[in-house]
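Example record for the data management plan.
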Amino acid sequence: MSAKERPIINDLPRTKVELACEVVAAAALVCAWAVALSAWSDLPQRVPTHFDFSGRPDAWGSKGVFLVLPIVLLVLYALLTLLSRVPHIYNYPVPITPENAPTQYRLARGLLAEMKAVISVAFAYLTWSVTAVARGFREDLGAWFLFTLLLALAGLLAKYLIAAYRSAS
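Corresponding structural encoding:
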């Protein structure tokens, strides 16, 4: 069944996990903007713009570049929110039928909500870390940051794929 032929289910209720992830993502978005706006006046003219694999800053730029982080987060948040409303257009690892569509849509929408929460928290942490490094309160992001972020995203994807394949049979 092609994406155009898949059933559209508008009244699929959100799970408790999805709702919790939405709250976490929204809170992280608010925190990122609160940190950015409150730190703006105290930031030096030069801020870290890139970090190496160990979390140390390896590129610096103007203070204005700092606002890219909360802006990108806002755009990602909005896009993922909009995308979560149309699960029938996603690519799925299993064929979608009228019988399995509700389950597959819930699983995929849950993956998006979980990824939105992880990404939002990561961006909020990055926003805070950039201000801390720029102001001399910290030297780096922490060597654990990139590894933890990648592990979390890979774990969410693996969990989703296992659940999608299991529920398709």
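Summary line stored alongside the record: The beta strands are 46-51, 57-62.
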